[in-house]
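Support request, please re-run this one:
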Amino acid sequence: MVLALLAAAHPQGALAATTGSCTINVTAGGVLKPNATLTTLSTKNPGGSAGRASITAAAGGMLPSALCLIGLPLNCMQVSISTPSSFSSAPAGNTNVTLVGTFSQVGSSSFLNLLSLVILNGTYSFDFDLTATKLSGSFGAGTYQATQTIRCE
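Re-run finished. Output below.
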């Protein structure tokens, strides 16, 4: 069971394209593992592991950089994830499944379980988690894959 991460760095509008940048480097894909009752597959279950990415944000110019550093989100970058609506690959018969993705900054408890976050200049490491819950029945044997998209814009 694999969790893949897809990175997409999109600056906000034409002005941001010339005054700031954001780089996403996916350093590890995640691993989904089942719970004891086979009703969830999650990177948070025992044996599972979160996907990881390093994200570097750089606001261009003195004024945008200074405003970003004091907390005014002018030309700062927003990190977000798009959780898939279904598995990209799974055995037949796996319907009634809900997927929920979250991310948190590595080594910090202040950004836990977010769907988006404005980041300041610098390099940050994030863990990306995914949990799939079977609404009725249990997950069957086989290989499951899902891809979350990381955005920095």
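Confidence is low (pLDDT under 50) at residues 9-18. The first strand starts at residue 2 and ends at 9.
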